[in-house]
Amino acid sequence: MTKFSIIIPVRKINEFLKENITHLKELTYQNFEVIIITDEEEKFDFQDTRFILIHSGPIGPGEKRNYGAAKSTGDILAFLDDDAYPERDWLDRAVEIFENTEVYALGGPAVTPKDAGLLEKMSGRVLESWMSGAGTVFRHKPGKSMEISDYPTVNLFVRKASFERAGGFPIEFWPGEDTKLCLELVKSHGRKFNYDPSPVVYHHRRKLFIPYLKQISRYGRHRGQFARIYPETSRLPIFFVPSIFLVSLIFGPIFASAFPFLWNLYFGGLALYLLFLISEGYRAYKKDKTILGAAYVVVGIFLTHIVYGGNFIIGFPHKPKLKLRRVDKTTGNYLGG
């Protein structure tokens, strides 16, 4: 019977992790272990011998996951974030897919929790929009089964043998360590891996606007860095679109002042963009029946383009580096976005 090793890196035990633990205990598939890696030694009564708590010192998430993988005894590594929790049939769905021995890795959707508050839910709606999620919407809500070459560790399964073959996670930077692992997985197997909508986890969103935008700034900067050094996964046209939009927004009037015929193109483009924004706001309104929420989505999409696009440009010439997130020493919760 296939055994899963669920690996969760965290700075310190926090409320999100406690919620995650509760749901992990309710999984219907029973053959698993959970390895939680904290900075410092802590004590927690799991009341379940399948849960293992180890400490690693203040190292990055990638290195913690490598540490957890080295301690694991399962056939398949299941990487899960502390602020996400699975559906009861999460592992049942995954094990069905891994019955195909050709499947070496699998990504599943990380959707917004059903009981999320307004600001968290609207953050999820922004990520689910084609305007901001673009080619990654399937990460935030179930999409069609497909082959992929890059996926975040919020809901990622990898056969242990394939993980070791790929060399594990890089330890010198974060975020982006998952992108590099996926790149090495694809290289080592000579083919892409699987995405399937059935193994679902619920992932808490950063609330609009400041925490969410801080997270987006990190994503934009690391993707800009990777577009330079890892073109196989990160030099896709879709990743450049927000930066092109930002540059056009700022410098369009300058060029149009010199070449007046460009004004029609500039204002026509803005009108079309505004039309798309309103359309996405209306779509959010139909789902949640709140005008305020729809307004949050419209502003959130616009700010996503500005913040991501600017940080993509900033990140492009720089070398990726590791910068650990700060936590509240009392609650264990992360500070900021």
TrEMBL record:
InterPro entries: Glyco_trans_2-like (IPR001173), Glycosyltransf_2 (IPR050834), Nucleotide-diphossugar_trans (IPR029044)
Protein's name according to its UniProt entry: Glycosyltransferase 2-like domain-containing protein
Keyword Transmembrane: yes
Organism the protein comes from: candidate division WWE3 bacterium RIFOXYD1_FULL_43_17
Transmembrane segments: 236-255, 261-279, 291-314
Keyword list, A-Z: Membrane, Transmembrane, Transmembrane helix
Pfam families: Glycos_transf_2
Glycosyltransferase 2-like domain residues: 5-125
